[in-house]
Amino acid sequence: MAKLTIRIDLSDHGAIGPGKIRLLELVGESGSISAAGRAMNMSYRRAWMLIDNLNRCFRSPVVETQLGGTHYANCESQHLFEALSIYQESHSLV
Hints:
Layout: E1 8-10, E2 14-16, H1 18-30, H2 33-39, H3 44-57, E3 63-66, E4 69-72, H4 78-93
Helix pairs in contact: 1-2, 2-3
């Protein structure tokens, strides 16, 4: 059976699709880039590089890091979270 996925190209910096969306969800749930990466069977370095790439695509960071942990960005990124919600809703319709 064929499967259709949505990928949004973000200028010259990259794209966001189901994998990065899932990584963001897991970072939000766990509060940890490391734990999110482990849940997706990827190294911390790979997970961090994906998050860093996303952070560079937007005016305010998707994920702000701090020594000893991470947390979702503050309300400056509210529009991004709304966009992620729309992405997830549209993906579920496909």
